[in-house]
Amino acid sequence: MNKIDLNGRCAVVTGGAQGFGRAIAERFIASGAKVAIWDFDLPMAEKTAKEIGPAVTAFKVDVSDLGAVEKTRDETLKALGKIDILVNNAGIAGVNATVWETDLEEWRKVLRINLDGPFICCKAVVPAMIRQKYGRIVNIASIAGKEGNPNAAHYSASKAGLIALTKSLGKELAQHDILVNAVTPAAAKTAIFDQLTQQHIDFMLSKIPKGRFVLVEELAAMVAWLASEDCAFSTGAVFDISGGRATY
Ligand code: NAD
Prior knowledge:
It comes from Bradyrhizobium archetypum. By secondary structure, the protein is of the alpha/beta class.
């Protein structure tokens, strides 16, 4: 593992109990940071924190609930002293269906967690970053947000929205030494697969020229760089990690 220096940095990783988020938390810890996992599955978040080590603290929060996020931000600031890094990773796939067969409630749920969630977490954390004149925000979008996936319009739309949020916030914060970037992974074999049909999983694999799914550690390495001071002049940018499933 190449060294990325996050010594002295304090990070929030939403949805850090498992999957990409856990790998990101592990990579941050290996790079010297302290980490707060924000996840609505508290037992799993606490188990993960225990397994990774004492520099990880678990908090139960639904990222789509502004009041709960503000409370958790305050608790995190009390526990860690500051928040230098925010990774908006928590997300759901939603039920695979065509647009016309998708329930309005299902559409709204995916948008609420995948797009309102990152907006709410940014809204809660950015003022403290502005006061300390430093921050790194990394949003976990998806290649689906650039290209659109059939039977996943809600998910694709939420990730396209997250890309636009990244670009807008990056411009708003460019003068504050707060960088905001997004990564767009192709599929990885995580628990999110449980929400997908086999047909959809096969479709996603067929779209990846490298012929395999991305590993969570591969994504975590890219996020760690974007969360570090080595990343100094990229903001509002979108980084593919899609095994060649590049679009634009
Ligand atoms: P996962 O299901 O393994 O983990 C997601 C975590 O988010 C879980 O611990 C869950 O409890 C938490 N979570 C979900 N909703 C939450 C909420 N409202 N508040 C707080 N926590 C919540 O998923 P993953 O595959 O690791 O995905 C992580 C991110 O990466 C998601 O945003 C996903 O859309 C994105 N992504 C995943 C893939 C993939 O194929 N796995 C591909 C591209 C992008």
